[in-house]
């Protein structure tokens, strides 16, 4: 929750712009500063800064809910808790599909079809809710330059020929899949950190990273001293932000 943008903490636009000039854009950035530092960058008094701290803290603090409320929310509309893979055996094992509101890791040896699965899930997320989809956009972060737009269209046409029966529908579907090629750990992390506002403006309902392992293997040799700690730090920070996005927007990641 600390990754929440300050703009969503109901601070004034003028104050957010002023803080942004000092690279303070998230609740975490704000709360990590001392009172004196905040007084300096905001130009406000001690008491006003104390009020701001309280406001930002409340905005990013997780809301308390009981186990019963969590269960009730899912039981009211069970289909909204999962994105079906349309693969009966896999959906059965996953108790309905890929869960919304949490992270899902897909692992296998090379060449087993992980990218094809991710492309298929991209198509499914754009489908109407009446067809088991999420009726939303997709953010696809490609770290291996493996994504194929041609394959996306091919899967859509072959799996759902009665729905994608015109070029207009295929065009609309492809426009809903937003592809980013990020080839380093640093660029992947920057992209993840910048996703929140884009998810709101583009109505993103699925986030895919294909794959985290690829950039980690290229940049971190765990045999070298210090690399293991840096690798763990990158994975922990990325997972924390992705978990926040999944929970905040109730989407599969």
UniProtKB/TrEMBL annotation:
Classification via Gene3D superfamilies: P-loop containing nucleotide triphosphate hydrolases
- All copies of domain RecA family profile, residue ranges: 79-253
GO MF annotation terms: ATP binding; ATP-dependent DNA damage sensor activity; double-stranded DNA binding; four-way junction DNA binding; single-stranded DNA binding
Where would you say this protein principally sits, based on its record?
Answer: nucleus
Q: What domain of life is recorded for the organism?
A: Eukaryota
Cellular compartments annotated? Nucleus
- Keywords in UniProt for this one? ATP-binding, DNA damage, DNA recombination, DNA repair, DNA-binding, Nucleotide-binding, Nucleus
Sorted alphabetically, the Gene Ontology BP terms of this entry are: double-strand break repair via homologous recombination
InterPro entries noted in UniProt: HHH_XRCC3_RAD51B (IPR058766), P-loop_NTPase (IPR027417), Rad51_C (IPR013632), RAD51B (IPR030548), RecA_ATP-bd (IPR020588)
Entry's Gene Ontology cellular component terms? Rad51B-Rad51C-Rad51D-XRCC2 complex; replication fork
| A UniProt-annotated Pfam family | HHH_XRCC3_RpoA
Describe, as the record does, how this protein assembles with itself and its partners. Part of the BCDX2 complex consisting of RAD51B, RAD51C, RAD51D and XRCC2; the complex has a ring-like structure arranged into a flat disc around a central channel. The BCDX2 subcomplex RAD51B:RAD51C interacts with RAD51. Interacts with SWSAP1; involved in homologous recombination repair. Interacts with HELQ.
What is this protein's function per UniProt?
Answer: Involved in the homologous recombination repair (HRR) pathway of double-stranded DNA breaks arising during DNA replication or induced by DNA-damaging agents. May promote the assembly of presynaptic RAD51 nucleoprotein filaments. Binds single-stranded DNA and double-stranded DNA and has DNA-dependent ATPase activity. Part of the RAD51 paralog protein complex BCDX2 which acts in the BRCA1-BRCA2-dependent HR pathway. Upon DNA damage, BCDX2 acts downstream of BRCA2 recruitment and upstream of RAD51 recruitment.
**Family of the protein in this entry:** Belongs to the RecA family. RAD51 subfamily.
Return the protein name: DNA repair protein RAD51 homolog 2
Q: Which organism is it from?
A: Colius striatus (Speckled mousebird)
Give the organism's phylogenetic lineage.
Eukaryota, Metazoa, Chordata, Craniata, Vertebrata
């Amino acid at each position: 929750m600390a990754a929440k943008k300050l703009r969503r903490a109901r601070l004034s636009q003028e104050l957010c712009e002023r803080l942004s000039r000092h690279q303070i854009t998230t609740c975490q950035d704000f709360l990590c500063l001392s009172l004196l530092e905040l007084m300096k960058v905001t130009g406000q008094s001690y008491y006003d800064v104390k009020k701001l701290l309280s406001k930002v803290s409340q905005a990013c603090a997780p809301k308390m809910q009981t186990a019963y409320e969590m269960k009730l929310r899912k039981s009211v509309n069970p289909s909204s808790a999962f994105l079906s893979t349309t693969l009966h055996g896999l959906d059965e094992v996953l108790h309905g599909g890929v869960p919304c509101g949490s992270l899902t890791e897909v692992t296998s040896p090379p060449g087993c079809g992980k990218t094809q699965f991710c492309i298929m899930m991209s198509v499914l997320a754009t489908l109407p809710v009446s067809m088991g989809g999420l009726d939303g956009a997709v953010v696809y972060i490609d770290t291996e330059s493996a994504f194929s737009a041609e394959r996306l269209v091919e899967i859509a046409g072959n799996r759902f020929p009665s729905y994608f029966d015109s070029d207009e529908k295929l065009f609309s579907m492809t426009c809903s899949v937003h592809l980013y090629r990020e080839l380093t750990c640093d660029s992947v992390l920057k992209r993840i950190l910048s996703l929140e506002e884009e998810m709101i403006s583009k109505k993103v309902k699925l986030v895919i990273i294909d794959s985290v392992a690829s950039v980690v293997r290229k940049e971190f040799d765990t045999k070298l001293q210090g690399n293991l700690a840096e690798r763990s730090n990158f994975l922990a920070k990325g997972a924390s932000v992705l978990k926040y996005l999944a929970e905040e927007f109730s989407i599969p990641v």
